[in-house]
Amino acid sequence: xxxxxxxxxxxxxxxxxxxxxxxxxxxxxxxxxxxxxxxxxxxxxxxxxxxxxxxxxxxxxxxxxxxxxxxxxxxxxxxxxxxxxxxxxxxxxxxxxxxxxxxxxxxxxxxxxxxxxxxxxxxxxxxxxxxxxxxxxxxxxxxxxxxxxxxxxxxxxxxxxxxxxxxxxxxxxxxxxxxxxxxxxxxxxxxxxxxxxxxxxxxxxxxxxxxxxxxxxxxxxxxxxxxxxxxxxxxxxxxxxxxxxxxxxxxxxxx
Length: 255
What we know:
This protein is an alpha/beta fold. It contains 10 helices and 8 strands. It has a 6-stranded mixed beta sheet with strand order 1-2-3-4-6-8, sandwiched between helices. The chain starts with 8 loop residues before the first strand and ends with a helix.
């Protein structure tokens, strides 16, 4: 069952030291700014929750994992400040994931685009199904994946980032994403994936929480500058979204 709420939904369930955070939106689990803000705050809160050792990030339904930014909201942006603020939503979430004291495991059940690829890349370990193809479509609408680029590059490297971002109309399948390092494991069905996700997270959550926190720090070493870089990149996207090219491209997606 997927949400019908215009601003999407976000639910957290904590059990056996595992916090399962599930987001959803009727438009293929895309993100309006209000939902990005809620996700950022939830990750920050869970970071300091002593009842949590591991965070499992997932989305609603059995189809798309995340369609990225809300096109309907993007098309309404008419000034640089609102554009920068919107793209800073993704910057805030990625920074929250980066700074979170808890390891974050991603569960990617289906296709993911743009900002959704950034979310998957910001997870410390990600499971996926063979339906979890990825695409960075930003250049095709006149902007670019600037905010999420550092997270994606960190996982798959500059060459693969170029291959992905410079072919904005092409889907890369889940096995390509696994080969490049975005996904750790890929399964043929959601059922098979969920079984392994359960086993993996239960084991991980049982380990020494101090060791887990130190491992998190190690994995994100040398990324302190992201706090500035991601917001700077949000400004680039915020300016580009005002271009005539982008306005015309986004109008085609408005419903």
